[in-house]
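Chain and conformation:
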Amino acid sequence: VLAGCNTSANPTGIVIYNVNTGSSRLIAADPGSPVWSPAAHVIAWSSEDGLFTSDLESGATRQLAGHPAAGVPSWSPDGSQIAVVDAAVQSLDVFDVSRNTAIFQVSVIVDDAKQRAPYLSTLGGPSWSPDGERIAFVCWDGTSDELCVLELDRGEVRRLTRIARPTATGASGTTGVTAGMGPAAWSPDGS
């Protein structure tokens, strides 16, 4: 799958290219961040227009969320749910794919931070634990990116890191912010 490819011979958007035959199939004209489901016949992608899925067997495309999404969506290990960061609301959203409904929405802003996350595009890329019971994601404490985990059985968010805050004063006279943490990756045993 390739997102956003644009040449005179190729369509623009979410396109599947068959490496054996050279054929291509346009899935969506809206470029985004595509991810295959574990079932391998459904693709999810996020974009400025929201979160979408396309069933490659039936050809059906559905929109799960209408707000701009930050980063790449993430499938649960069993393929029944998708997690994505909502850029407008600044939340981690979890959707039940079969029911086309949101089942969790937790803020990516922690510790009562008053300031919105300035670089939300780096907050994308939630990561499911191998057992499907937790989701790691980048959260924001008002001055720096942090790593948080959503415990799905309790709906509880735990902050795992406490990155040292910058002490220098920027040119504008305000303390700088630290952002840019990449997405989390779980060890195979989920510990």
Notes: Residues 127 and 136 are 5 Å apart (CA to CA). DSSP finds no helices and 15 strands in the chain.
